[in-house]
């Protein structure tokens, strides 16, 4: 009888500990925003020389999470599967230069736009290509399943291009451009502006852009509560100057939309 009582006490203790750990794990998960990013998308989100994830969107997200009394975890993902990662619940937000499009609005909820951008064509600085029509018969690279692809598909020049090569990220595309395997790359203006400051005299941007666009943050369909909480934090950051401070750090000026 005494042994039975001892065993019951042990079982009760184990159950208590398991329940407490489970509840703590659940609470920690609910207090953490898991953000899906492309960690090669400078200056929005990328790895620095110490392999730390940094960038405008990284600082912007950290500041928003602080306003929301939440912690943040950045999860590098395959950008081609970003909407699937979100809908499956493996991430809470898509936040890394994520362009708002009508097609994407059918899959995710969006915050209000926070940055303006454009899809542009970049070539080597000494290239003879000077306008979109010069892309006829040329090999063009871009990031797969990105708004760069949408912009090119919507341009009349697409049918005249010899070949479109898709890459998993912009870094690989720019490397192929520098090696001569590509004649041009379609890329976010914000991204190539950053690389042109790092590699001066390497690239040039054609004056004709393919498409203006705006960045927003993607939230899982049905999670209006998180969208509302996040948007409230972003609005507060605009009002108290936090957003401007982050923008000036990365762009030298306040580019955040109000």
Automatic annotation (TrEMBL):
GO terms for cellular component: membrane. Residues 220-247 form a coiled coil. CDD domains: PBP2_AatB_like. Keywords: Coiled coil, Lipoprotein, Palmitate, Signal. Residues 32-254 form the Solute-binding protein family 3/N-terminal domain. The keyword Transmembrane does not apply. InterPro entries: Iontro_rcpt_C, Solute-binding_3/MltF_N. SMART domains: PBPb, PBPe. This is Amino acid ABC transporter substrate-binding protein.
């Amino acid at each position: 009888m005494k042994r039975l009582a001892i065993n019951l006490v042990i079982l009760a203790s184990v159950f208590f500990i398991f329940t407490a750990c489970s509840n703590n794990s659940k609470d920690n998960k609910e207090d953490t925003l898991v953000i899906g990013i492309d960690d090669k998308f400078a200056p929005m989100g990328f790895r620095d020389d110490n392999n730390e994830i940094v960038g405008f969107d990284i600082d912007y997200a950290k500041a928003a999470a602080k306003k929301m009394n939440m912690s943040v975890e950045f999860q590098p993902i395959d950008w081609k599967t970003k909407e699937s990662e979100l809908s499956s619940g493996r991430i809470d937000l898509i936040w890394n230069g994520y362009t708002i499009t009508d097609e994407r609005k059918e899959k995710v909820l969006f915050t209000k736009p926070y940055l303006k951008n454009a899809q542009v064509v970049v070539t080597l600085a000494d290239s003879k290509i000077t306008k979109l029509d010069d892309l006829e018969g040329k090999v063009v690279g871009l990031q797969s399943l990105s708004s760069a692809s949408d912009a090119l598909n919507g341009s009349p020049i697409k049918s005249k291009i010899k070949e479109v090569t898709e890459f998993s990220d912009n870094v690989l595309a720019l490397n192929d451009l520098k090696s001569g395997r590509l004649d041009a790359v379609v890329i976010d203006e914000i991204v190539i502006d950053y690389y042109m400051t790092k590699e001066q005299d390497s690239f040039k941007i054609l004056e004709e852009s393919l498409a203006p666009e705006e960045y927003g943050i993607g939230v899982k369909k049905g999670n209006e509560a998180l969208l509302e909480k996040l948007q409230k934090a972003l609005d507060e950051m605009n009002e108290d100057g936090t957003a401007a401070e982050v923008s000036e750090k990365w762009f030298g000026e306040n580019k955040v939309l109000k």
